[in-house]
Amino acid sequence: MLDALARPYDLVVRAEWVLLEGGFTAAEVAVRDGRIVRIAPRNRGGEHLQAERVVELADDEVLLPGLVDTHVHVNEPGRTEWEGFDSATRAAAHGGVTTIVDMPLNSVPATVSVAALEEKRRVAADQVRVDVGFWGGVVPGNLDELRPMVDAGVFGFKCFLLHSGVDEFPEVTPDEMEAAMRVIAEADSLLIVHAEDGHVIDAAPHAHGPEYAGFLASRPRAAEDAAIAEVIERARRTGARAHIVHLSSADSLPQIAAAKADGVRLTVETCPHYLTLRAEDVPNGATAFKCCPPIREDDNRDALWQGLEDGLIDLVVSDHSPSTPEMKYAGDGDFGQAWGGIASLQIGLPLMWTEAHRRGIPLERVVHWMSAAPADLVGLRDKGRIRVGGAADFVVFAPEETFTVDAAALAHRHPITPYDGRELEGVVRRTLLSGAPIDDARGQGRLLRRGS
Ligand code: ZN
Q1: For residue 102, how far is its CA from the centre of ligand 1 (angstroms)?
Q2: From the CA of 158, how far away is ligand 1's center (Å)?
């Protein structure tokens, strides 16, 4: 016992600015066996905590919890030419993201059965640089697979209410969604929904050609608003936990507020592209900006920020969804033909910080939306916060340093992002996973199971 107590810590990080639950504090954070075991006030000139390795942050650096991104499309196996566990988790590590949860679609097979989940785990196992969890999928006819997938450790289930973009992951009807919600409520799991209504979109003008305004008109706010109303109604009826992914239409904020006030178990996410980009600025033919639902107008963007500040939107995640250049530029600038998906996993924090700073929103709120809040969504109690007992996942961030995004220098597979050439504030200098610097040369992440 005495020996164990006398043993030095594996790591101590000392910094003037450590983001703890109460805000930024000068502190020393001690780590043993990958966990935070002690946090002490920084004692300048006095006794320090002793460790085998000491990291002393520079004056312009702050220590943040590792970010948690619960919306990443890794696409492996099956579409590894779009992205993969190797490149996606390298991009995550470079961006300060120490945990991702992989979406069930765009990989082949889609994660709609235990067998598909096990196959994904097999291919991911030796190549992940950060911790990786998995979503399952709800598609027509796989109701009997949901409970076994919960038992196998998925963090919840995704469904679509309109065509998903890939044929092997079909959408469900509202009634099928409700049936899934009943199973999911019983299993104490979570349903996350791509909420756009196919009927509203079918009735809207068809997207074609290089004009962004045409694409925007093809995916109206009303399509999201109608689908979100359906999710709220079914969640209310079943008592299931439901989550709206990538909210773009700020017109839905009043019904979200009302549902939350009524006690419906509803959470909502949005993404950096809806908060930092504006439809008015998207150049015609620039299909790097295409995503569904779309980037909307400036007034909508302001309202989404207000929704975040008011707590109606709970969290911010990337919806990193890359594809090959052939798909992203299909049709040579035709918004009807190009793949819809934005690649931004590595630069989420500087994107959010640049815009938040401009709006007078403090860094600690941004970090909450990108770490503790997504960790809470999926029940990862030891992630997303710097506290005793938590995982020693850290980001060393220099909030005042600026840089220019170079798509070719980002670690995801293809050098495409709508942010290419943008000047951003805040540089991720280092990322630590379980108390160790992430090594680009090898995988050191773990595959996570819910409840373990
Ligand atoms: Zn997505």
Answers
A1: 10
A2: 10
